[in-house]
Amino acid sequence: MTTTILALDLGTQLGWAVSARDGLISGGSESFKPQRFEGGGMRYLRFKRWLTDIKQCADGLDWVVFEEVRKHAGVDAAHAYGGFMAHLTAWCEHHQIPYQGVPVGTIKKHATGKGNAGKAEMIAAAKARGHDPVDDNHADALALLDWAMAQGGVACA
Question: Which InterPro entries is this protein grouped with (predicted)?
C-alpha cells in the first residue's frame, strides 16, 4: 500500500497535489479569495472544510507537506500565508496527521536543479515529469509532492 501525501503551495490561490493510495496523482489550484460580504476569517473556514473534503476523498492522509515561505512580496501575502499555515498545522494536529514545511529553494532545486527557478521553469519541470499543471501554484505543489515521494513518502525529522 502506498502512502497518501498531500502537498500544498499555501496562499490565496492555493496549489495542491495528492498521491492517492492507488498511486494516482491528482491536484489543481483552489481560490480562497475573500468573498463579497464575507468576514476576514471565512477564507480559513472554507480552507479547513476543503482540507477535510480532500482527506475524505483520499480515504485519509498519511503526510502533509507545504511550501515553507520565509520571504513575501507584501504584507497582505505574508498575513494570508501565516493564516493558512496556522490553520493547516492546527488541522493536522487535530487529525493526528504528520506535517512538514519544505523551503522554497529545496523544492525548486529538486524540480529544476536551480534553487531560484522561476514560474515558467517550474511549469516546464512539471510538464517534463508528465503532468499538466493548471498554473504555477499547481506546478509548485506537484514539485513538492515529487520531493516528498523521493523522501520515501515518510516525514523527515
Answer: RNaseH-like_sf (IPR012337), RNaseH_sf (IPR036397)
When computed from its CA atoms, the radius of gyration of the chain, rounded to whole angstroms, is: 15
Distances (CA, A) of 86 to 48, 90, 91, 97, 109: 11, 6, 8, 14, 26
Q: Superfamily for 5-150?
A: Ribonuclease H-like superfamily/Ribonuclease H (3.30.420.10)
pLDDT at 111: 94
User: Are the C-beta atoms of residues 87 and 44 closer than 8 Å to each other?
Assistant: yes
Q: Where are the domains of the chain?
A: 5-150
Residue (of 3, 32, 2, 1) closest to 16 by Cα position: 32
| pLDDT tens digits along 87-134 | 999 999 999 999 999 999 999 999 999 999 999 999 999 999 999 999
Residue 154's pLDDT is 62
User: CB under 8 Å, gap of 24 or more: what pairs does 130-133 form?
Assistant: 131/25
* Residue 112: Cβ within 10 Å count: 18
Q: What is the pTM of this model?
A: 0.93
Mark 13-28 as b/e (b = at least 16 C-beta within 10 Å).
ebbbbbbeeeeebebe
